[in-house]
């Protein structure tokens, strides 16, 4: 009987701890909304035949549904890096868990302390890129993973933060076979409106296999070298050529971000252009 009496307070303590742990999860409500939305998408995928995917203007007896057994989940092909331009990781998380305002999100947030918060399943479409273009891809959100780096847009990135971003990228590259050239910045895909990530160590990341970089030895481009064509081949949207040049220089030059290609800039661009061919 003595054992029974000693168990009562123990069980009480355990139950109180469980209640306390649940109450301290300040994102319990938004986590629940996440699960509800994910279940809604799962129901859409389960529908056979799919809802609202009939061929327009076809008669009912002219089309049918047979479910193939050979299919899989769409996988990301790009990684887009951002800086948050906010005060803290908590501030960014609050922004990404508020409904009906900015409605922005990202798959991962990397804090100044190096801690990583995973916020959207890699297979789902996060709202991180907005209107942008890279090469022929005009819907970057649907083909990419977005990573937000906790930074106000002015401060240097912490060593712990850089190491964490590298680890996240290594995992993503391994899991989804993302090509080396497809690790890019927000300013690359949206040169008319975005500057991030500011002063990012792209050379270091390229050396680790995340993005391309130019060689130490550069050859002079031919006289008929077309910089606009080269920028387009790399991936930039050249509908606003000045903005494309600035975005290119933010990524690959950094010491000068004027909208004019100097002879040195053209050496770099020519070298990279050949890598992207």
Description:
The protein is an alpha/beta fold. The chain folds into 2 domains: 75-211, Peptidoglycan recognition protein-like (Lysozyme-like, 3-Layer(aba) Sandwich); 214-277, no CATH class. The chain is built from 10 helices and 5 strands; from the N terminus they run ααβαββαβαβααααα. The protein has helices at 2-23, 28-46, 89-96, 140-143, 159-176, 186-189, 202-207, 227-234, 241-252, 263-276; strands spanning 78-83, 108-110, 116-118, 144-149, 183-185. It has a 5-stranded mixed beta sheet with strand order 3-2-4-1-5, with helices on both faces. α8 crosses α10 (263-276). The longest helix is centred in the N-terminal third of the chain and has 22 residues, at 2-23. The chain is globular, with a radius of gyration of 24 Å. The protein starts with a helix and ends with a helix. Residues 1-23 have low confidence and may be disordered.
